[in-house]
Amino acid sequence: MSTSLIKLNSGYDMPQVGFGLWKVNNDTCADQVYEAIKAGYRLFDGACDYGNEVEAGQGVARAIKEGIVTRSDLFIVSKLWNSFHDGERVEPIARKQLADWGIDYFDLYIVHFPVSLTYVDPEVRYPPGWENAEGKVELGKATIQETWTAMEGLVDKGLARSIGISNFSAQLLLDLLRYARIRPATLQIEHHPYLTQERLVAFAKREGIAVTAYSSFGPLSFIELNVKHAEGAQPLFEHEAIKSLAEKYGKTPAQVLLRWATQRGIAVIPKSNNPKRLVENLDVVGFDLKEEEIEAISALDRGLRFNDPHSYDLPITIF
């Protein structure tokens, strides 16, 4: 099954629908990646912080060994964690992550958060999380410009074909564009009907930066993380505006939510452990919602953000 492609400003094509590796368990990750490749997924969105890059790479290696895909068929994404923002730390950790995946380059490498934390040696703890070696949250001193310059060096050395950002505000993106030698190819943000971020999406698109949505199903991913306001939000799968459209088009609520995003030119990275849903989530460009239906879903916007450090009692203000 093929999906549509988004042309990045770096010249490369990125699949519009990918498989997100956040919260994929280590003991099942290799098999899930392998099965997702068999189902037709070609983009895999990983990160240092997810702690499963070795296993994800094993799934990729198995699929390549069996001739299901070649490396060039895949679009592999990873992210730079906050503890490695110092300029001299970027390349070494990127090389470690590449080794974990068992590949020579990332198709896209992203600054995970616009926050510098103090360095934690991977030999001490990996992935390091938000706390330093003493168990405290301690901000680092690296500027975004320092980090981005090092990110550009990854492109120069062929370690990343494209570079991007995640969880950036419009103001930070505007600042970054003033000094970027290589413009960010993508902006990855929390995006669902309860948090549409219309102005940020429009700004990124005007600047030729592709937008990728994470947490497309809203509160679903955050209830198990004990994010309190996620528990109080109506699940989008059960919202009448979504359920009625799913019934109308003979689709699942998940497919409607993903089509709402993809039809507006946004990339999505859902995950599922269920083989049937795995295929369904990939099949979200074969039908069209009407413009008024897209607007009705967008009208559910409540500015309700779930992935915020403060939601996890971390004293870091980003948004």
From TrEMBL:
Q: Which reaction does it catalyse?
A: xylitol + NAD(+) = D-xylose + NADH + H(+); xylitol + NADP(+) = D-xylose + NADPH + H(+)
User: Keywords, A to Z?
Assistant: Carbohydrate metabolism, NAD, Oxidoreductase, Xylose metabolism
Q: Give every NADP-dependent oxidoreductase domain span.
A: 17-301
* Top-rank taxon, per record: Eukaryota
Q: Which residues form the active site?
A: 50
The record's annotation in Pfam families points to: Aldo_ket_red
| One GO molecular-function entry | D-xylose reductase (NADPH) activity
Q: What is its EC number?
A: 1.1.1.307
Chain positions of site Lowers pKa of active site Tyr: 79
Q: Which Gene3D superfamilies match?
A: NADP-dependent oxidoreductase domain
Q: Which pathway does this chain act in?
A: Carbohydrate metabolism; D-xylose degradation
Q: Which InterPro entries match?
A: AKR, AKR2D, Aldo/ket_reductase_CS, NAD(P)_OxRdtase_dom_sf, NADP_OxRdtase_dom
Tell me if NAD is a UniProt keyword of this record: yes
Binding sites annotated in the UniProt record for substrate: 112
Question: Transcription: present as a keyword of the record?
Answer: no
Among the record's GO biological process terms, what is one? D-xylose catabolic process
Q: Where is the signal peptide?
A: none
What function is annotated for this protein? Catalyzes the initial reaction in the xylose utilization pathway by reducing D-xylose into xylitol. Xylose is a major component of hemicelluloses such as xylan. Most fungi utilize D-xylose via three enzymatic reactions, xylose reductase (XR), xylitol dehydrogenase (XDH), and xylulokinase, to form xylulose 5-phosphate, which enters pentose phosphate pathway.
**What does the similarity note say?**
Belongs to the aldo/keto reductase family.
The family database entries (PANTHER family) matched by this protein are listed as: ALDO/KETO REDUCTASE
Q: What is this protein called?
A: D-xylose reductase [NAD(P)H]
Q: Which organism is it from?
A: Aspergillus mulundensis
